[in-house]
Amino acid sequence: MPTAEEQISDQRLLKGARARAAIARHAADVASAEGLTGLSLGRLATDLGVSKSGVATLFGTKEKLQLAAIESAREVFIQHVIVPALSRDKGMPRLRALIDNWFAYIAEPVLPGGCFRVQSATEFDSRPGPVRDALAADRADWFALLEKEIRRAQDQGHLTGHDAHALAFQLDAIVAAANTAAQMGEDSALTTARGIVDALIGANA
Amino acid sequence: MPTAEEQISDQRLLKGARARAAIARHAADVASAEGLTGLSLGRLATDLGVSKSGVATLFGTKEKLQLAAIESAREVFIQHVIVPALSRDKGMPRLRALIDNWFAYIAEPVLPGGCFRVQSATEFDSRPGPVRDALAADRADWFALLEKEIRRAQDQGHLTGHDAHALAFQLDAIVAAANTAAQMGEDSALTTARGIVDALIGANA
Question: Which of B8, B102, B187, B202 has the most CB atoms around its CB within 10 Å?
Answer without folding.
Answer: B102
